[in-house]
Amino acid sequence: MTAVSESGSGNGGQSVRRRNRKHEVLEAAIEVFWEKGYADASIQDVADRVGVLKGSLYHYISSKEQLLFDILDHSHAQGIEIIQRARLVEGPPLERLQRFIEDYLRWYLRNIKRVSVYFSEGRYLTGERLTTVRRQQRVYDEFVKELVVEAQEAGDADTSLDPRLLTLFVNSAVNGVSTWYRTGGRYSPDRVAKEYAALALRTLRS
Amino acid sequence: MTAVSESGSGNGGQSVRRRNRKHEVLEAAIEVFWEKGYADASIQDVADRVGVLKGSLYHYISSKEQLLFDILDHSHAQGIEIIQRARLVEGPPLERLQRFIEDYLRWYLRNIKRVSVYFSEGRYLTGERLTTVRRQQRVYDEFVKELVVEAQEAGDADTSLDPRLLTLFVNSAVNGVSTWYRTGGRYSPDRVAKEYAALALRTLRS
Question: Which of A27, A129, B85, B127 has the fewest CB neighbours in a 10 Å radius?
Fold first, then answer.
C-alpha cells in the first residue's frame, strides 16, 4: 500500500474506500448468516444491515454464494497466517503443536460468529467454490498431521496411533468449540485455548 | 404389540401399517435432507422419494419442521437405548466409557446419514421443538460427564482436568466423525469405533 492510497486521495483512496466497504459488507454478512442461516438469509438482509440499497451491494459482490465464499476464503487466509506464524516457531513438535492450538483457538474464539458460519454454512457452496474451500480445509488438517508425524518420529507421540485418525480426532475436538461456546459464559477464551491445547497433547503424547 | 396387530388384521394391523409407512417416510426424509439440506428440501421431494402423492404424506406428518423433529427425536431414542445398555454394564468407569463410545460409534457409523442430519440440520428447528432437542442433546453430554467424574473419583482419570471441558472435548471429537467419514473408505466402522474409544481414554486417563 502506498502513502498516496493511505492518504485517501486519488484512485488509491477510492480503492481503500472500496476495500473498507467490502470489508463492511463481509462483516455484515457474517452477522446475517450467523443469525438466520445462509439458506434463509437474503442479499436484502445484508443490505439492510449495512444500511445501503440492495443494488449498491452488487458493486462489491456478484451473488449470495460469492459472499459466502468470500467469508470462507478470508477466514482461511486468517487461518493460514496462524499456520505461517507457527511454522516460524522452533522447538520440539509437541510444543509447537500446543502453541499452534492455543493461538488458533484464541483467534477462533475472538471470531466465533465467523468461525460458526465457516463450519455450518460452507456446505451450501457449489462447484469450483466448494472444491476450493475443501482444498483449503485440508491445509489445516495437513499441518496438524505434519506435527503429529514429526512428534511420532521424535518419539514424543505414541507411534502405535494412526496419525490421520489422531489428527481428525484432535481437530474435530478443537473445531467443535463453536457448537457449545457462549461468549461471556463460564469459560474465558484463554482458558479454553490453554486447556484444549493441553488435552490435545494428552491424547497423543507417548 | 399383540398377535392380532402382528397378523396385520383389524385396527391393530392398520396401526402397524401406519407405523411402517411413517417409518418409510422418515427414512426417505433422511435421504432427502442429507442430499439437499433441510432448507432446500421440500415435502414434495420426500413424497417423490416415497413414491406417493404429496397430499397423502400429511397423514403421517404435519409439516416439514415436524418431519425434521421426528427424525431427531427418533435418533435421540436410539441414542438413549445405547445409554441404557451402557448403564447395565459393570466394571470400572473408564472401561464402561470405552465400551459406550465403541457401541455409540458403531450405531453412529451404521446410521451416518441420520446422524449427519441430526448434527447439521437440527438448528432449523424452532420454539418448543428446538428446546426439546437441546434438552435431549444434554442427556448425552451428561452421561459422558457422569462417567468422567466417576473415573476421577476412582482415581482413574486426571482430577486436574475440568470434567465439563474434558467431556466437551471428547464428545466433539467423537461427534465430528460425520464431517469426515466416508462409507467404504479407508477406515472400517469397527476400526474407527475402537481407535476413537482408545483415544478418548488416553485424553482423560491419569
Answer: B127
